[in-house]
Amino acid sequence: MSWTEVGDRVFQRRYDPCDVSVTVVAGGDGLVVVDTRCSLAEAREVREHLKEISSAPVRWVVNTHVHFDHVWGNAEFVAPRQTPPAQLWGSAEMIAAMRGAATDPEATAFKKSLAERNEVWAAKMAELEEVVPDHEVRGRHDLDLGGGRVVSMRQLGRGHTDGDLVLHVPDANVLLMGDLLEQSGDPAFGPDSFPLDWAPTLDAALALAGPDARFVPGHGESTDAAFVRAQRDAIASVAAECRALRSAGVPASEALAAGDWPYPADTLTHAVTRAYAQL
Ligand SMILES: [Zn+2]
């Protein structure tokens, strides 16, 4: 894997573990790094790889959402590892969720399970510093990168989480979608997802995009509007099926067996419980 320039001075790189996207947008005053991988060690590797595309400073770091594979490298970009520190940005909901995770028993159990996985993960977890963004997006905020370039951070609605940010780079016709879009796997309907809201959020992203826009998923290679539309339609059909089954009186526990679904049951366990809860 190496950097791919998905649009003018917009570079994506896919990283294991998790096949997570890190995307860099270069402007006149420095770099924006979008998502920071699962650990400080992994973020240090990103820092090394940045030298392949630019010697400019990292001025901004943006987390598309709260999940660990997108935020646990944040500490690499603030003091003492970086001075002056980058501005760290996330949605208000994402920031609240990351603060909440510090004392959440499930999050604590998850960290413990990672630390016990093997020596590599034990080392990563031993140096974990959860740095919460100190700059909050509410609805929309535009970053001026200098040199006439703007990156627009948008909350277009709920979907993968309640705090998903989409980054629009209008002069390159690129949208960074976070996990609202997945190319290398099925969409991730987690216990914090909003299946009923997700398709309209993708509609808003499609409306924002010009023709021939490129879309960078949270996991996988960059893609086009036709792919986004197809995933949007599949997610909309999950929502429609949940509504229909619930209206017909089918309990959540029987919905996966009773319904006609675009994804395997494993993908949809939380989708059904979350949609039913919302309904
Ligand atoms: Zn995620």
Instruction: Tally the beta strands.
Output: 12
> What is the beta-strand fraction?
15-25%
Q: How are strands sequenced across the largest beta sheet?
A: 1-2-3-4-5-6-7
What would CATH call the homologous superfamily? Ribonuclease Z/Hydroxyacylglutathione hydrolase-like
Return the domain count. 1
Tell me about the biggest sheet? 7 strands, mixed
Gyration radius from CA atoms, angstroms: 19 Å
Provide a descriptive summary of the structure in words:
The protein is an alpha/beta fold and about 280 residues long. It has a single domain, classed as Metallo-beta-lactamase, Chain A (4-Layer Sandwich), CATH 3.60.15.10. It has nine helices and twelve strands. It has helices spanning about 40-50, 70, 90-100, 105-115, 120-125, 195-210, 225-245, 250-260, 265-279; strands at about 5, 10-15, 20-25, 30-35, 60, 85-90, 135, 140-145, 150-155, 165-170, 175, 215. The strands form two sheets. Strands 1-2-3-4-5-6-7 form a seven-stranded mixed beta sheet. A five-stranded mixed beta sheet has the order 8-9-10-11-12, with no helix packed on it. Helix 7 crosses helix 9 (about 265-279). It is globular and about 60 Å long. The model has no long low-confidence stretch (mean pLDDT about 95). It binds zinc ion. Zinc ion binds near residues 67, 160 and 188.
Write a brief structural summary.
By secondary structure, this protein is of the alpha/beta class. The chain is built from nine helices and twelve strands.
What attributes characterize this protein structure?
9 helices, 5-stranded mixed β-sheet, 21% strand, 7-stranded mixed β-sheet, Metallo-beta-lactamase, Chain A, binds zinc ion, 279 residues, alpha/beta
